[in-house]
Amino acid sequence: MNRLGIELRDIKEFNCCGFPLKNSDFKGYVLSSARNIALADKQGLNIVTLCNCCYGSLRHVDRQLKKDPVLKDDINEILKKEGLEFTGRAEINHVLEVLNRDVGIEAIGAKITRQLKDLKIAVHYGCHILRPRELVQFNSPGSSSVFDELVGLTGAELVSWDQQEECCGSSIYGINDDLSMDLTRKKTETARKAHADILCTACCYCQTQFDRVQKRLGRQRNMDTLPSIIITQLLGLCLGIDQQILGIQDNELSLDKLMDKLS
Hints:
- The chain is α/β, with parallel strands linked by helices.
- It has 12 helices and 6 strands.
- The longest helix has 18 residues, at 204-221.
């Protein structure tokens, strides 16, 4: 973001968005997101998130509280103990929206200093930037073309594959591991059949799933793995940002094949 002229401010009091609580403690889920929105609003800031689940949760709670004055009053009564209030003024943005709307594809392209050659990428959108569309409401509809255009700036070839809009399985990992692993296996196998060299995700939660579960699948089912990278890491490399700063070394599956194609 600094390279693109955007100043980020870290609100250290932010908590989890509440996504893991959604189906077990709805009020706790709402309070978690509402507190974050209120913290941003108190500083006169909007929110940008890299995680699709956070984006979906924050957008959902923002809309829910604007529609339900009883729930809003109940939540604000709790927030008042910290000197906070949900007003609905703070905007919730996914990083893809910021890159597309506030920076612009052409402006980012003008800053690209390195290109990928002879590398095929399968893009994984992730559920919560595509649906429910009446909640997401950006890029008319969903975020697919914005994501595709950003990846296209890197010089890599985008491959078409059948599973690109399907869930990665992360939301049920730890609840039903077999189903979660099957969803990840089906996606990665389909991407490999489409001759993808790497998966690029718009969501850090999804990227963690692909790394974590594929390693487990490799151990338990002797399955070949397909490396994954977050869109901001991919763009960062092509903007000339050092891989240590981008955290490439923290990805659990080797990205050597991608790094070898960077010129």
